[in-house]
Structure formats: structure tokens, C-alpha cells
Amino acid sequence: MSEKTYKGIPRKQIPWDPKIDYDKCTACGKCVEFCHTQAFKTETANGKKKTVVNPNRCIVFCRGCEDICPAGAISHPDEEETQKVIAKLKRA
Questions:
Q1: Contact 57, 38 (CB under 8 A)
Q2: What residues form DSSP beta bridges with 75?
Q3: Which residues partner with 49 through β-bridges?
Q4: What is the pTM of this model?
């Protein structure tokens, strides 16, 4: 299986994974259903459902899950800062 890249940079080096605010998240599963790259999954622990992030599956600069989350529990890193990281990685 080949490693995923973004503009020639290994995806795992780019800090663009969604963050979940668990104080807001209701584990409704809308993000799990929405994301075709499976950046989210639902786990059950102690009888309680919890949505978690699958690292490095999110498409760089995609924010669709933020719009689909009814609780507003999903956020992403700052785009400008991420662009700077990508530029630095390209120079390396």
C-alpha cells in the first residue's frame, strides 16, 4: 500500500487532523457518516459511545465535517499556519 501524500509531502507530516471538543460532542455519528475518508469512527467504552479521529485520514484543507456537526464540536488547525508548515516541508 502506498503512502498518502499531499503535493508530494507525506500526509502524516501535515498537521491537518480534526479536533473534537468532547464537552460539545454528542456522538451523533453525523461526521462518521459524512466523511468518505473515514477520518472519524465511533467507539464504545463502558457502554458509552464516543466519536474519535483516525489520524492522517482527513483531506488537507477539507472542513466539511465542521459544517455537518450539529453541536459545533469539530475544528481544524489554522489554515495559514498549516500552509507555512507545508511550505517549510517543501523546502526541506
A1: yes
A2: 19
A3: 44
A4: 0.89
Q: Taking the mean position of all CA atoms in its chain, how far away is CA 19?
A: 7
- Mean pLDDT, to the nearest integer, of 10-16? 95
Domains detected in the chain: 14-91 (3.30.70.20)
Which segments within the chain are labelled E, that is strand? Answer: 5-6, 9-10, 19-20, 40-45, 48-53, 74-75
User: Which residues make Cβ contacts (< 8 Å) with residue 44, sequence separation at least 6?
Assistant: 50
Nearest one of 48, 13, 27 to 40, comparing CA atoms: 27
What are the DSSP calls for 54-75, one per residue? -TT-SPTT--HHHHH-TT--EE
Q: Is the pLDDT of residue 32 over 90?
A: yes
Neighbours of 58 (CB within 10 A): 23
User: How many residues belong to the chain?
Assistant: 92
What's the Rg (C-alpha) of the chain? 14
d(CA 74, CA 31): 9
